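Below is how a single chain appears once it has passed through the pipeline. First comes the sequence as given, then the structure the pipeline wrote out for it. We keep one example in the README because the format questions we get most often are answered faster by looking than by reading.
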Amino acid sequence: MYSKDRIAYQPLPLPDRQEVTQAECLSGAQAFRDRMKTRHTLRDFSDRPVDREVIEAAIATAGLAPSGANHQPWHFVAISDPGLKARIRAAAEDEEARFYSGGASDAWLQALEPIGTGISKPHLEIAPWLIVIFAQRYGVNPDGERYKNYYVPESTGIATGFLIAALHHAGLYCLTHTPNPMRFLTEICGRPDHEKPLMILAVGHAAAGATVPAAAKRKKPLSEILTVNPEGR
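Resulting structure:
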């Protein structure tokens, strides 16, 4: 975490040390892989409530992510208020209407077709929670002085991955939504100008009869996403 004072490096004994066998390593990796295989991006949400404490615990997990210089350049806004969710939906659909009526290339629209997206975003009101993720371009001290943050997109992306995994581990579903532009989120959420909205996560339980796009289940095989010991050029 950033401090205006000069802080010298101080090594600490490794906390929470894990001592596991090779077999336990493999078992743990496979178990987590299999758990994450059951994660699905969802648009069909139930209005079943989710306790605030669950959302807070998941966001606290996101806050444990590594970040550039440990500056933790992120902020999460959790919204359950129906009025705020309605405002976000209306603004997001306005941007989506522009996107689908000429803002997107034909190739982009063709790529989205198997996913089944469109202008209407009812899930932004039905889902009990929306989490808006902001990346802090720079930090501001209590006295108003700016300081530089490092690797902001990378750090915030890692934290978002932690958050999505935590929500899934809690038994919830989420949908990542990135209307473009997203400036309206800064105003609705009351965040300062130096914070850039990155995405909205709609969070909740699955509705009865919920579906997912068949295309979304086609994942690249390990052979296409992994290279071990490359020979270089």
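The beta strands are 74-79, 129-136, 138-140, 146-148, 173-177, 195-204.

See the next section for the split statistics.
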